[in-house]
Amino acid sequence: xxxxxxxxxxxxxxxxxxxxxxxxxxxxxxxxxxxxxxxxxxxxxxxxxxxxxxxxxxxxxxxxxxxxxxxxxxxxxxxxxxxxxxxxxxxxxxxxxxxxxxxxxxxxxxxxxxxxxxxxxxxxxxxxxxxxxxxxxxxxxxxxxxxxxxxxxxxxxxxxxxxxxxxxxxxxxxxxxxxxxxxxxxxxxxxxxxxxxxxxxxxxxxxxxxxxxxxxxxxxxxxxxxxxxxxxxxxxxxxxxxxxxxxxxxxxxxxxxxxxxxxxxxxxxxxxxxxxxxxxxxxxxxxxxxxxxxxxxxxxxxxxxxxxxxxxxxxxxxxxxxxxxxxxxxxxxxxxxxxxxxxxxxxxxxxxxxxxxxxxxxxxxxxxxxxxxxxxxxxxxxxxxxxxxxx
Length: 391
Known about the structure:
It is built from 14 helices and 10 strands. The chain is flat, with a radius of gyration of 33 Å.
């Protein structure tokens, strides 16, 4: 009996070991999710996977997030790199985001490109390269007006001359594309609005005033066309064309003077400007106080004065009771808004003008669009004059 047990025991142990190996050791090995595979977890209400949606082990590189179409998460990852002292990783992440946007544009995935670039520009507003790519995405959708707006946003933050030149060329070509669409559709009113906008965006580019005058003539507004042409009649590039069009208007006026009188305007006076780098200073007056110099800033929606200017004797103003956030070289600043009794530039005066009040490095103030938009204005760089006429 003892010998029988001794013989059967190894056999029994072998059977148990085999059963154990079959039940446990032959089970499929669990694998971690591959970074290249789409995430299966729920996504955020915006439709994008965010870093907070993913466990720490799944917070992978920007490249992998972009491959998953997790654009918001990729931008959040890029932003998280700002806390690092080494800016190389952040720059690498930026390059990957812009490369992916270019890839989307080449494959005509314009909606995805817009989504990615809009997220990125919220984190990096002053990135002109991203802004230009976003404009290209809108061009792909034939949305030229939005593309133009994006190009001019890029123009406002670009610094390097070669980039500015490229942006300027691009913006003007888009304007002509949009204008051609309006002409094909016979939409002269929209054409007029387009060039009214462009003369304010680029008040130093005389060609826009010629185009504006032609749009005004298409709507038979000869008096407005005269105002536009007289603003640029002295310009060396388009002055001859302006004079030719004015001569035709005068001839038309003489032919129709008995039945359809046309008021002829012979002069648009200018206000002298002082060059300040790439910008200009213009002299202004506030009631009976001494004159001040304001930097012309067509990118500023509101005129700005320093507290020191308002403290001068004779200046009458009142507190509006509210404040606004202003963009400055040092970032966003909240400042109070006051109401001036009047502000005069040249022969033109506006009353009850709102102004922001904050410190400006080396300046007395900025002349913004809440003054300038009341006029048709041209910055004559050749003669250093600000030429104003009624809207």
